[in-house]
Amino acid sequence: MSEYGKLGIDYDVLDESKRSAIGFAQSTSHLLEQHGGSAVEASRGASAFVLELAGQHLAFVVEGLGTKSIISRHWLEAAGEDRFADVAIDAVGAIVNDVVSVGALPLVINAYFATGRSDWHAGEHGLQSLLAGWKRGCELAGAAWGGGESPALPGLVSPDDIELAGSAIGLVPSEWGPILGEELRAGDAIVLVESAGLHANGASLARSVAAALPDGLLTAMPSGRRFGDALLDASIIYVPLVAELRARGIRPSYLSHITGHGMRKLMRAPGDFRYVVEELPPVPEVLSFLAEQAGIDAREAYGTFNMGAGFAVYVAPDRAQEVVEAAAAHGMRAAISGRVEAGDRSVELVGPGCTYSGAELELG
């Protein structure tokens, strides 16, 4: 059993639940017709649901941050530093990075702040920095903050914690159409764009690791930086990159937000292709330290965490360098890392020698 599985997080079980839900959801698609719309069924199981209405394509996402907000509370208690703004940006990033994965640009983002007791909002938990961080995330995504919900859920949420989640609506540029992998071809290049570290995936394991360290989140990593400080680095929001690709007239054949399932997400597109990655980005220290302390090998680490690559752009090989330049224009490091090949659906990471079969990623 994986280290994640020991914590009660089993992607095989969660993915089966998702596939079951998709079946029920598909049976409601016809209800859009009464409003003059239609579901883009190829988006079922993708990072965002796409519908067509009045000649436009809209993308809709609901996403949550997971347990990373607990780390921000623990860090406040241990180090006296308020990092709630960073986890708010993480939550916005989790939402909008899924929106842009289907080629849409976010228009409106809504927030969901669930607490275990209403006086969380009156306490010294970093509420103002949380709100400022959510606003900043919206600014980075170029989207308005529409509204949200802030329920108090005693018995469901811990009294000291807050669950961060939200939703967004995005608009697919008319000259693009939805990007769902249907144009993906053997020979396409894979450009990997850097991550800032943990992003929104792996917090439960990170908390487990920290709890076993004598100094907890205050533990110094080899560089001297404290583990908890690095865990809370805010996610990169990739909306500016996708907007830049549009401005440069570069339409990717596919886009993938690399979060849960790690590098297995490279094969999320439909169709039988091999995804061969020969150049991986540097692994952020916080992720290599996490993997080492958790006692997990390279295969589990790369199949679980982003390991330094937060987003993947698939594009015709003659335009791959332009994608790297587009990323650099927004301060993001990227590299032409691999290619798409004909063959059985799989991901091959040449450096660490890891191969993942198609059966290891079944989302829809």
Give me the CATH superfamily of the largest domain.
PurM-like C-terminal domain
Low-confidence stretches: none
Number of domains: 2
Mean of all residue-level pLDDT scores = 95
Give the class from helix and strand content and strand pairing: alpha+beta
Give the amount of beta strand, in percent: 15-25%
Instruction: Tell me which oligomeric state these chains represent.
Output: single chain
Q: Write down the secondary-structure element order.
A: HHEEEHHEHEEEHHHEEHHEHEEE
Architecture of the largest domain in CATH? Answer: Alpha-Beta Complex
Terminus-to-terminus distance: 23 Å
Question: What would you say this structure looks like, in words?
Answer:
- This protein is α+β, with helices and mostly antiparallel strands and 364 residues long.
- The chain has two domains: 31-172, 60s Ribosomal Protein L30, Chain: A (2-Layer Sandwich), CATH 3.30.1330.10; 189-360, Phosphoribosyl-aminoimidazole Synthetase, Chain A, domain 2 (Alpha-Beta Complex), CATH 3.90.650.
- Helix content is 30%, strand content 23%.
- The protein is built from eleven helices and 13 strands.
- It has helices at 3-6, 11-26, 68-79, 84-99, 127-141, 203-212, 227-231, 239-247, 285-294, 298-302, 320-328, and strands at 37-39, 49-53, 56-64, 105-115, 144-149, 162-172, 189-194, 254-257, 273-277, 309-315, 334-342, 346-349, 354-357.
- A seven-stranded mixed sheet has the order 8-10-7-11-9-12-13. Strands 1-2-3-6-4-5 form a six-stranded mixed sheet.
- Helix 5 links the parallel strand 4 and strand 5 (144-149).
- Helix 4 packs parallel to helix 5.
- The longest helix has 16 residues, at 11-26.
- It is globular.
- It starts with a helix and ends in a 7-residue tail after the last strand.
- The mean pLDDT is 95.
